[in-house]
Specification:
Shape: globular
Helix content: under 10%
Strand content: over 45%
Radius of gyration: 22 Å
Number of helices: 1
Largest sheet: 8 strands, antiparallel, barrel
Number of strands: 20
Distance between the termini: 50 Å
Order of helices and strands: EEEEEHEEEEEEEEEEEEEEE
């Protein structure tokens, strides 16, 4: 961490200064944000809003915060989005933490009635956490994948063919993996942590070509949000590239933040790489 020295008479005071992390990606409640820095000005805007925020009216480029950095704190205006009423501003401020990798803002967000009139406020906390460049899915995982049906302890026929164009078509089992997220038909997860635990492609003369990563994500879909921790293992089996995914979901809440029944559970799947053609 950088430090600045201030001289007062014969005394020298040294203060830590958080680094300026310009043009970086941040996680905010499951959405990927972009931080723009211009002098002391700071803006957080959506780069990849989670599905719930898209439904509320947010789009890539929509502002969430604009203000200034003052003495290790961000001070300015935040915006919340309402599907029926649009975008509303409110004042927030808070510290820059963890050597500049976390921003914690608080303020009183307006509460709206059915006519979109302000009927009061509630205390709101906005948390922005830096997504490190290294915390991205390796390129071998990127693209479209088709889930293979599982019956009991066996998987379906491996020769199944899938195409990227099937993504988000009705009843499709095709999903996309990008550097920072996984997107399925009616749900998705933004990765807040990606850690490679094994990479046989870095081992000379390796024949397995296997790669394993562990992800932690903020997920949403069908009116709910939840946390996810998953293992992704990529390996060739009988000449076919297979993606094995297993993990655990927790802390599920509905669209008003209320915990839901059966908010925890395990999951597992096997998928094949889809072709890029139509």
């Amino acid at each position: 961490m950088k430090r600045i020295a201030v001289v007062l008479g014969s005394m020298i005071f040294v203060f830590p200064v958080a680094p300026v992390l310009a043009d970086t990606l941040w996680d905010h409640n499951g959405s990927v944000m972009s931080l723009d820095v211009d002098g002391d000005k700071r803006t957080f805007s959506y780069k990849e809003p989670r599905p719930g925020m898209v439904k509320a009216g947010a789009q890539p480029g929509s502002l969430v915060f604009e203000g200034k950095s003052v003495g290790g704190r961000y001070v300015g205006r935040a915006y919340f989005y309402n599907q029926a009423c649009g975008r509303y501003p409110y004042q927030v401020e808070g510290p820059v933490l963890n050597d500049g990798s976390k921003v914690l803002l608080k303020g009183d967000v307006p509460r709206l009635n059915r006519r979109c009139k302000i009927k009061g406020t509630r205390t709101d906390t906005l948390v922005f956490e830096l997504i490190e460049p290294s915390q991205q899915m390796p390129p071998q995982f990127l693209g479209a994948w088709g889930e293979i049906p599982v019956a009991g302890d066996s998987i379906g026929d491996l020769p199944r063919v899938c195409k990227k164009s099937e993504f988000r078509s009705s009843n499709s089992s095709v999903f996309l993996i990008t550097k920072n997220a996984m997107e399925a038909l009616e749900s998705g997860c933004n990765f807040v942590s990606v850690k490679k635990t094994y990479d046989a492609t870095e081992i000379p003369e390796s024949i397995s070509q296997a790669i394993t990563v562990v992800t932690e994500g903020k997920c949403s879909g069908e009116g709910q949000t939840w946390d996810s921790k998953a293992i992704w293992h990529l390996e060739k089996v009988d000449g076919k590239l297979l993606l094995f995914n297993s993990g655990f979901s927790s802390n599920a809440t509905d669209d008003v933040g209320k915990p839901v029944d059966d908010g925890e559970g395990a999951f597992a799947s096997v998928s094949i790489k889809c072709s890029e053609g139509e």
